[in-house]
C-alpha cells in the first residue's frame, strides 16, 4: 500500500478504502466496467423494475430488497435496521466527516417494512442514488457510541465481507483473514488471508516487488518500464476515474489577492505545458485531461475549452491584468508580488515532480513559485484547514460522475472557496434526473462552465499500474473511487 490507512472506518477515511472493502460491504459496489452492481442488496432499484416510484408530490420512494442469510462477522444478522442506522449517522453532524455526505441529504425518511426491506423517501429525484451506501455500519455494535472516535470499530471493523479483521501493526501492516461463514458460500473467499504492507516510498515499493517480497502492488506510471519484463510477474494497467489538477484557493486572504481574477488563473494555465508533463515526466503512460470526467465515462464532454500552452499569451494576459514584471523578474501589482506556495505531499513524489515542472514554466512568465513539503498527515490537516495557496491535487470519482460534492458552493469537498451559482444550478439539475439523455447535456454544461471559469487546470487522467505474480487470478481492476479490491473474494494465487 502507498500509505498507512488513517482509519478502518470506510465512511470517514480520507484515503481510498481498498483495505476496508475486503471486510465491510454496502448495498452496492462499482466494478471493473465502471458500473454499479448490487452486493448486500438483491438488485439496484430502477424505474423499470419498480424499485423507484415517483409520487404526485414530486417525492421518490425507493425500495431496496436485501440479501437473505447475511451475517456480521460476530454472527449477528444483517438487517434493514443497520441500513437506517448508517443513514442516521451520515446525516448527523458527525457525518460531515463522510466525504459525500451532501449526496445523502435528500433522503427524508428511512422506512423498514421488514428486516430485509428498506424504503428511502427522497425529496426529489437523485440521479446518483446508485453511488450511495457502499458501506453499511453494524447498529448493534455502534449504537450509542461516538463513531468518529470509537476505536473498537475504527481500528478493527466489524463487517459482512469475505475477510475478517485480524491485526493492525502501526507503521507496518494490516492483516485480514478468511471469513469462513461468508454469505456468498463455501467457495469464497479463495484466499486464506491478505496482508497489506504500508510502504510510502515508491522506490522502496518497487524494489520490494522486484525482490519478490509481494504478490501484488501498485507502482507509479513512470515506473512501468522497470518491471515490464520482471520474471514471474505481470503488469496490469487500470484506466482510472482519477484526474490530476493544478488547483488554487480562495479561502485565505493571500490566495484571494492572487487568484480572484479569473484572467490571472487562465494566464497561469496557458503558461503550463501539460503535454510535456504527460510525455516527459509521466513517460506517456497517462492521458492529457481537459475535464474532470474521463473518456471512459459516457458523461465525458470532449468539447470543453482547453488551455493550450502559450507562454506569450500568458504574459500578455498578466500584463493586461496589471501584473508588471519587476526589477527582480517577478511580476508585481499594488505592492504585491505574484508569488505563491504549492503545498506538496511527501507520499506523492510524482505530483511533487509536476509541481517542480510548473515552477520552472511559470518562472518563464515572471511568476514565482515556492514549495512547502509536508508528510501525509500534516498535508491532509492543512488541506482540510483551507489555509493553503495552491496544490497539485487530484480527485477520483464514482462510476456515476456527479461533481456536486466537489464543486458546489456548499459542496462537502469544496476546499477552495470557489462558488458559482450557475454551476450549482446545472449540477443540481443533473443530480435531480434519472434519465441519461436528459442528464448528459447538463453534465456537458457543468464541464464547460468549470473550464471556462478557470477554476482549476486538469493536467492528466491517471492510470493505475499494478504489478502482480503471473499466477495471480481473478483481479479485475477498477478505476473508480471504490478501487480495485471490490472482488477480492474471487482472488486466487493459483498453483
Q: What's the short story on this structure?
A:
It is built from 14 helices and 19 strands.
What's the SSE blueprint?
Layout: E1 28-30, E2 36-38, E3 52-54, E4 60-65, H1 80-91, E5 107-114, E6 117-122, H2 139-142, H3 151-154, E7 163-169, E8 173-178, E9 193-197, H4 202-210, E10 216-218, H5 224-227, E11 233-248, H6 253-259, H7 262-270, H8 274-281, E12 287-288, H9 311-320, E13 324-325, E14 331-333, E15 336-337, E16 339-345, H10 349-363, E17 368-374, H11 376-385, E18 390-396, H12 404-407, H13 421-431, H14 436-452, E19 456-469
Helix pairs in contact: 7-9, 13-14
What attributes does this structure have?
single chain; 4-stranded antiparallel beta sheet; 495 residues; 14 helices; alpha+beta; globular
Q: How far is the first residue's CA from the last residue's CA?
A: 25 Å
Which structural class matches the secondary elements? Answer: alpha+beta
What is the helical fraction, as a range of percent? 25-40%
**Helix run count:** 14
β-strand percent reads 15-25%
How much is the radius of gyration in Å?
A: 23 Å
Query: What about the largest sheet?
Result: 7 strands, mixed
What's the overall geometry? globular
Mean pLDDT: 94
This entry's quaternary arrangement is single chain
Q: Count every beta strand, where a strand is a DSSP E run of 2 or more residues.
A: 19
Low-confidence stretches: none
